[in-house]
Specification:
Length: about 650
């Protein structure tokens, strides 16, 4: 939904339907309904419920300019022990150069009804602490005291912001149910904003009016605030299962974007730009386009440009990517802007994602590789809204290279990923190519199938069964193994040695850890207690290597199922039948094959060996929400077949 807030047009008020229970919305005043609430009728599984969440943003003058005050008050009923975590409060705040946000006036209480009396425990603001998330964002954290099942908690605070460009957004929906949510914004005539409502088509209540208080004065101009109030009630909990890019893409919320500045002198500055204008600004920026140019000029002092010009395009591309990955380190910070000059980056050997990738583009261009930056929003940051050409939606930059007519997206921060791939964190809808031509978008979706094959040779014995295991992985699954285990034997042993399983340490072999274009290989032997009941062996053909429960648990889903990339799993097992035994039960074969998914299960016996093949393949990187019931069914079949046991009995 896209609307412009105009300052002199009042929107029609829509009546709001309230819940039958009359919960108080006054901070510090707790009523009988809140105390007696034991279960939320609209969601009986809820561990907690937001009784009210009310926010207000308004402008005030400070030393000849405007700042924004954002006030919030929230009350939550804790319904069970599992809901106590909702008494741990986090408040995000922003700082960029001289622009900052400051949190103050924190006030919070816990209410417990005990021995016929309502006990009130006050939170001490001295118990807050701050954690830095990245170079721009930090979070202030605190936990309310004396919280238990049945408690009512409430908190309020004020956040002062100099960041006029982006009014605080408001999330109406939480991961627990919300009874009432309201956001009030008091606008002044000097700034105009657009808002975007996500997740719903309309508000339960929306009203706009001119404030009836005394007029304010700025310079020689007198003005009244234009008040806009948005409210929703009875919002269901947002259940974010597995396979989701970011809840920011789907949760019910309202975003504000500055579109115009009306100067008191009479001038007007349009903030809502166009994609060509945004591209042009980036190309001229010292931390972006000019950084690439400086890197290109610096290249001859870093690499042998003349020697590289004699090679093929593919050789040159791989050389530069491998060179950067081997010689420079990523500091784990995402950015589309560089943080230092190319010469300082080369000298210090580390930097943020833009330092590395823009520098790499410069090196590629120096040896006649056609290369461009591509600005994107990472998965965690949410999808790009293509109708809104705002630079701040983007938080990362990738590399696009044209190699013999083939367009390749790459990223030099991920040293264990093949050069023609981008990290999973970057596989998020689309990116904008930054070059002089007409604006061009590129699809970031990955259609490369990622595969894991696991081979088992099982030798059952009276007390302890032995197993030889070989694991092969490619593409993103290989990256997961390389990052997760690498060449660390202790990590592998820690992952497998449970429930009586013991790895034979001398058997561990890891191949191709650093050969990123080849399969990651892992071999080892283990032993585990045999399961024998009434002289019968009960054997799990794939041990516990299959997922043990369905990750999809909702009845229905309103957003896509995002696997990131197509996924194949192959399990091959050979079971040696011990002398004096025979196959008593083999799992039945099964086959599913369609455009969405494939599953094959076969079990056969040849002489004294049982051979079992189990294969499944999720063919798409992203499935529509209408496919949810099918995908859920496929997972059920995977779990069911993966844990069927082979039974051996005495002859």
């Amino acid at each position: 939904m896209n609307k412009t807030i105009f300052f002199f047009i009042a929107l029609q008020f829509c009546s709001i339907i309230t819940q039958s229970q009359d919960f108080s919305k006054e901070f510090g005043k707790v009523g009988r309904d809140e105390i007696e609430l034991k279960q939320y009728e609209k969601d009986k599984s809820a561990v907690a419920v937001v009784l009210f969440d009310i926010g207000m943003s308004y402008f005030y003058q400070n030393e000849g300019s405007f700042e924004i005050s954002y006030d919030r008050k929230t009350r939550i009923k804790i319904l069970s022990e599992a809901g106590i975590k909702w008494a741990e409060i986090e408040i995000l705040f922003y700082q960029e150069g001289g622009i900052y946000e400051k949190i103050s006036n924190i006030e919070a209480y816990t209410y417990n009804f005990e021995d016929g009396l309502l006990q009130k425990t006050k939170f001490d603001p001295q118990n807050c602490h701050v954690e830095k998330i990245n170079e721009y964002w930090s979070v202030k954290k605190f936990a309310l005291p004396n919280v238990k099942a049945g408690s009512i908690i409430e908190f309020k605070y004020e956040l002062i912001s100099q960041y006029i460009f982006n009014l605080r957004d408001w999330e109406f929906q939480w991961k627990i149910p919300v009874v009432y949510s309201e956001y009030e914004v008091k606008m002044i005539p000097f700034y105009e904003y657009r808002y975007i409502l996500q997740g719903k088509n309309s508000f339960d209540s929306q009203v706009s009016y001119v404030s009836n208080g005394l007029p304010s004065t700025f310079g020689s101009i007198k003005y009244q605030d234009m008040v806009h109030k948005f409210a929703m009630n009875n919002l269901s909990a947002f259940n974010d299962e597995e396979f989701i890019s970011s809840i920011n893409d789907y949760i019910v919320k309202i975003d504000f974007q500055l579109s115009k500045i009306n100067y008191p002198s009479g001038g007007v500055k349009k903030i809502l730009t166009t994609w060509p204008e945004l591209i042009n600004e980036l190309l001229k920026d010292n931390q972006f386009g000019k950084y690439i140019s400086k890197s290109e000029k610096l290249a001859s002092k870093i690499i042998n440009v003349d020697d590289q010009l004699k090679r093929t395009s593919k050789e040159k591309f791989d050389y530069v990517l491998s060179f950067v990955k081997a010689n420079y380190n990523w500091n784990k910070r995402n950015s589309k802007y560089s943080s230092k000059s190319p010469s300082d980056f080369h000298k210090e050997k580390y930097g943020n994602s833009a330092d590395i990738n823009l520098f790499t583009i410069g090196l590629l261009k120096s040896i006649d590789i056609e290369a461009y930056p591509v600005i994107i929003s990472t998965r965690e940051n949410g999808k790009i809204k293509a109708d809104y050409p705002y630079s701040h939606f983007f938080n990362y930059v990738l590399i696009l290279a044209n190699i013999d007519g083939q367009v390749i997206l790459t990223d030099a921060t991920e040293i264990l990923l093949p050069n023609a791939r981008i990290p999973v964190r970057c596989i998020n809808d689309k990116g904008l190519i930054i070059k002089d031509d007409e604006p061009e978008w590129i699809n970031l979706q990955s259609n490369f199938s990622s595969e894991i094959q696991k081979d088992f040779a099982i030798y059952p014995d009276k007390q302890t069964s032995k197993v030889d295991i070989e694991i092969l992985a490619n593409e993103y699954d290989a990256l997961n193994y390389r990052n997760g285990y690498g060449e660390n034997h202790e990590k592998i042993k820690e992952a497998y040695q449970k429930d009586g399983i013991e790895i034979i340490d001398t058997s561990l072999i890891i191949d191709n850890y650093q050969d990123i274009d080849d399969l990651y290989k892992l071999k080892f032997k283990l032993k585990y207690p045999s399961e024998i009941i009434n002289d019968k062996y009960y054997i799990l053909p794939f041990l516990n290597e299959i997922i043990s429960k369905n990750p999809l648990i909702q009845e229905k889903r309103t957003y896509p199922i995002d696997f990131v990339y197509p996924q194949k799993r192959i399990y091959n097992t050979i079971i040696e039948i011990p002398e004096g035994y025979k196959a008593y039960y083999l799992p039945k074969p099964q086959k599913i094959s369609n455009d969405l998914f494939e599953l094959i299960y076969k079990s056969t016996q040849e002489d004294n060996q049982i051979k079992i093949i189990f294969y499944y393949y999720f063919k798409k990187p992203i499935y529509k929400e209408t496919d949810y019931s099918s995908i859920k069914f496929y997972f059920n079949e995977i779990v069911k077949k993966g844990y069927e046991k082979v039974v051996l009995s005495k002859i």
